[in-house]
Amino acid sequence: MSELTLPQPYLLFLGDTTEPGYAKTAFGLRDWAPERCLGEFSVAGATVTTGLPFLTPAQAHAAGARAMVIGVANAGGFIPPSWVEALVEALRAGLDLVGGMHARLRDFPVLRDVAAEHGRRLIDVRVPPSPIPVGTGKPRTGKRLLTIGTDCALGKKYTALALTRAFHARGVDATFRATGQTGILIAGGGIPMDAVVADFAAGAAEMLSPDAAPSHWDVIEGQGSLHHPAYAGVSLGLLHGSQPDVLVVCHEPGRERVLGHPDYPVPGLRDTIELALRLGSRTSPRIRCAGVSLNTGKLDPQEAQRVIDAESERLGLPVADPMRGGDSFARLVASCLA
């Protein structure tokens, strides 16, 4: 896997997004790489904001920005026509463009032409390495933790990043392994699992977390959900190829319907844990669930703690919100390392 060297700092582009869950790239960069983010830019119709200053591309360039990053990960990863004018504006203002969509910037002739005219770069990060082998299922040295979820966009990346940071604080040798465009932008490398041909997904996960020292932990960012009507295949390939020793299940209390698929209910935590352990044991016979990560960002602190405590008692597992930290998160970290 090659490491990325990206032009920094960034202007975060939110398009015309109205669903916060689809702006997870922008929020992820704001929260985990704030020193690289100068502001945000959007087009008419957008209602989502990161809270960063609103800057035009010209203003951002004058303030020191060197790239505009598409901060949206919409269903299907497409770039709608309503964004193109704003992307052109950024190139003309002197900014490179960084995209993490399935639609690649270089596939738009107008962007190629304007970039060439102004000496700017079009950088697509949702491009898997080549070649990728078919998965082997062979055991590997080292230790592995995979975050899995009851749905998309509810905290798998944040949980993996928070656990990696907590492992480091305890003196544990650990590496965050990015599997999506946002994680790759934060970590500077990784494999975009949802851009890998299905037959090679498990092999890509094996590449992502190779043999390591016995005490080393790879903390692997999960994708999708094993119950998801569209993305379960990505989740299963990642689970089999990662061969995790430990799972941490991620969930958002109060989310009742799958994001973007309202006809489908979000599965329960017990069902998710049982399914993941059953499927994961195919390539990792001693797999275990260390606990649950709850995204309680929509709850006040008292209600969040009540939900955390109740779920921990109900499931008989450590439950925490990594972004709130505290004793419950310390217990989750200890359970992962036990």
Describe the structure.
The structure is a single chain. By secondary structure, this protein is α/β, with parallel strands linked by helices. It has two domains: 10-124, NAD(P)-binding Rossmann-like Domain (Rossmann fold), CATH 3.40.50; 143-337, Rossmann fold, CATH 3.40.50. 34% of the residues lie in helices and 17% in strands. It is built from eleven helices and 13 strands. It has helices at residues 24-32, 57-62, 81-92, 109-118, 156-169, 181-187, 201-208, 232-242, 269-280, 301-315, 326-337; strands at 10-13, 37-41, 67-70, 96-99, 122-124, 143-149, 174-177, 217-220, 246-251, 257-258, 261-265, 288-294, 319-320. A six-stranded parallel β-sheet has the order 7-8-6-9-12-13, sandwiched between helices. Strand 3, helix 3 and strand 4 (96-99) form a beta-alpha-beta unit. The longest helix has 15 residues, at 301-315. The radius of gyration is 20 Å and the shape is globular. The two termini are 30 Å apart. The mean pLDDT is 95. Residues 134-326 form the D-glutamate N-acetyltransferase-like C-terminal domain. Residues 47-128 form the D-glutamate N-acetyltransferase-like N-terminal domain. InterPro entries: DgcN-like (IPR011669), DgcN-like_C (IPR035086), DgcN-like_N (IPR035402), P-loop_NTPase (IPR027417). It comes from Noviluteimonas lactosilytica. This is DUF1611 domain-containing protein.
